[in-house]
């Protein structure tokens, strides 16, 4: 439940914030629209931690001394007792060990479709309005008008560092010491395992923006109040932890004025690609609830949706990849670029920049097809100089800002545009195929058994992601080849007809 970009870049962050540079959908992830689910895996393959700390970080980085090493049922049970003592009403679900995900919420009695569940009161929800145990630190942060995400990240660290001195101690103790996120992959691991996927670029960008946000807070606030924000507590490692928690657990509650919040207990729910129910605040019951979209039997795991995310997006924020073919929202980003040897390269680039695009540009491809924006971009790439009057129209359509030409077509260059998309597709397929072929014999170069297990796990995640993304590209390749074949066979028929008519008149 954690997207990240439209929200951070426009509404919350000041113009100087490094996180404003995040791209917007569909080309990138975005922190919101945070539907309402949260935490770890659940669909098939994986969701073990994406990564115990590396040797470098163990030697050079401060240790994260809060949270739990694994998502144990015992830690969650302690959280459940504390929540009940703190006002959580009796529930129809309980925390238990589950097959999909290490722990989750299971039905303790029969649940009906349409039934409202959870009822977490606002007093047990963490938001930007939550009271700081260290009130002076909270006042300083609010005095600087820090946006919600950085504010919540700092709040989490502040409360975690107080251990039992914080009212949230039991909740923080149940959080993973290392969130399931690509934030914890090293640059070497990203380059090695995700070389074929555009998610690699997203991960690098996200890591860069998190570090940049910390540096911004450090220079503007922390360095001026070192007694309130000591570096041994507020540093890049602890911010990586807190942002990892936010990316994987923060939800948006539309009925609470769109407030972003961490909802203890609710974030024990795991994700299922076929579930379409989200969290929200229910004004009648005065609690955060969700509505079951199917019946559940006692002992059956109850699921929620983390949003309509691709496998790559799920890996990016939550550290797991659903089994191939099980995610109806899965997509792969196809990178496309202007040709630098194009005599109209500058004019086309100017048209793209005018509408907020660049080269290269990524577009989502699904098993069912690709967006019109991708086709418009392809038209622009292959258009000849005598179509220069249409460059801006194509760029505008590629940016999704055109309200008139939703079905933009240029029959005279359609074949060339489709061939360009096919070439881009096949270039990407070759990268996936090369990685998948080499992954079987990839030298992990690890001496520690613990690190070997981690590296093997990361490689398996990358194989799962690459397999699912290549599958989508194979489908696109098939469709493109068929369309090109139909176009070309139609041209051949026309040529044969023309030739027959010409021969007739020669007789």
Give me the secondary-structure topology.
Elements: H1 6-12, H2 55-60, H3 73-85, E1 93-97, E2 103-107, E3 116-120, E4 126-127, H4 135-143, H5 148-161, H6 169-174, H7 187-193, H8 199-220, H9 236-249, E5 251-253, E6 259-262, E7 270-271, E8 280-282, E9 287-291, E10 303-304, H10 311-318, E11 331-336, H11 345-354, E12 361-366, H12 372-382, H13 391-398, H14 411-439, H15 449-506
Question: Overview of this structure, please?
Answer:
With 507 residues, the protein is mainly alpha-helical. It is 44% helix and 9% strand. It contains 15 helices and 12 strands. The protein has helices at residues 6-12, 55-60, 73-85, 135-143, 148-161, 169-174, 187-193, 199-220, 236-249, 311-318, 345-354, 372-382, 391-398, 411-439, 449-506; strands spanning 93-97, 103-107, 116-120, 126-127, 251-253, 259-262, 270-271, 280-282, 287-291, 303-304, 331-336, 361-366. The strands form 5 sheets. The chain has a 3-stranded antiparallel β-sheet with strand order 3-9-8, with no helix packed on it. The N and C termini lie far apart (74 Å).
Outline of this structure?
With 507 residues, the chain is mainly alpha-helical.
Helix content: 40-55%
Order of helices and strands: HHHEEEEHHHHHHEEEEEEHEHEHHHH
Strand content bin: 5-15%
What's the mean pLDDT score? 82
Number of helical stretches of at least 4 residues: 15
Structural class, by secondary structure, is mainly alpha
Q: Distance N terminus to C terminus?
A: 74 Å
